[in-house]
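Deliverable D5.2: sample structural annotation.
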Amino acid sequence: MTVHPPLPLLLLLLLLLLPLPPVQGCQKGAWATGYLTADLPSVSVKPGDSFSCACCALCHQNPTCASLSFSPATGECRLHSTVAGYDTLTPDNSWKYFVMPGRSQHHQFCRQDSDCLVKGDFCRGRVCTNQTAVTCRVIYQTFGAADRFGNYISPMFGWLNNTGVLLACRMGSKDEGYTRIFRSYGGKAFDRETMFQYNSELTEDVQHSMLYLADHLRHAGTEDTYQLKVHPELYSGYFYAVIDFQVPRAEPVLSDVPRPGVGSLQTSSNFLRFRWTMTMPYVPAASYLSVELYVDVPAR
């Protein structure tokens, strides 16, 4: 008499023998939201965030599929034969975008170095590139984002001092890739020490500082000068007025030696006079200041 194994055991053996699609690979998103226009047949799966894995599995089964766009609201699953970059992805929070492993060309989104197909490219700032630094200006100019993602974007994915960092970027037509390095608001007191102790995580409801990377940012360009912008907070949470000036690249962003010159600005409701020292910007005779600092360096 032939003895058959119980049905659950048969199913287990079958699952072990079948090659399962590595849907977890494309679930590690290189970029969270947006979509491409489908150039492979679109399909429909069940709506809902949890069904993006089904869309990933369909992409894996198609040997020409390199990335996919999924709409949790409608269940539409778009398959693509290429990987998006900043210059081709359409920003849209109602879509999820995923990249398949090992399919990314130069200046396309990636998750890790092994995704990059071009020799000499590495996954830096979630883009396959040979750039040694990824700043807001690089994203704006070299990667082709321009102002397609909005005038102010936070967070963006950068690369400084050989590590990934989150950036807050000004990307409008008048702010073509400024990187925010410091933010203090609500009249918080600060000095040279506390400027560096601010939370380095990029959240909008706390003080924020990237000053520990300021000189790495300064050295990311090759021009003779770099640009500094000061945005004072004119009233609660609203940063508007600007002091904008060029600094010789040989001069550090922060130093104990005062920077010569006085900058002033006037608005209909405020008159603020700043002197920028390389230690900190300040309002004379005031111990509290709400301000944002931005640095722009031309891309290599």
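Annotation notes: The domain at 22-105 is CATH 3.50.4.10 (Hepatocyte Growth Factor). The chain has two domains: 22-105, 141-296.
The annotation will be released with the project's public dataset once the embargo ends.
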